[in-house]
Every structure is written in structure tokens, then in C-alpha cells.
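Appendix B, example 12.
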Amino acid sequence: MTDHESVARRFDRLETRVAHHERTIADLNEIITTHWRQIDALQRQMQRLREELQNAQRPHDGPEPPPPHY
């Protein structure tokens, strides 16, 4: 095998590795983006639940009306 063939083979292997690394990076980026969207949605949901809980804990004005069957 000549030096040129050896260099060409090494270069091909490096190109293959770079292509695999680029695909891995793209896959990880997609996963991270999905997770950030999920985290954002969960944070908004938690904020709504906090607000609902705070509203439920506030004292209501006047007596509670009787249930409808009375």
C-alpha cells in the first residue's frame, strides 16, 4: 500500500467519523429542543396550578351557599 492510499483511507475514515458525529449532534439537538419545550410547558402548568391554589386558599366573602339539594 502506498502512502497515498494510506492517507486516502485515513481521510475516508475521518470523513465517516465526522459524518457520524454530525448526525449524533443533530439527534442530541433535537432531543434537547424537545425537552426544553416540555420543560417550558410544565413550568407554565405549574404556574397556573400555583395561581389556582392561591386563589383557592383566599378567604371567601360571606357564608358558603347551601348545596342545590336544600
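The two ends are 98 Å apart (CA to CA). Residues 1-48 form one domain.
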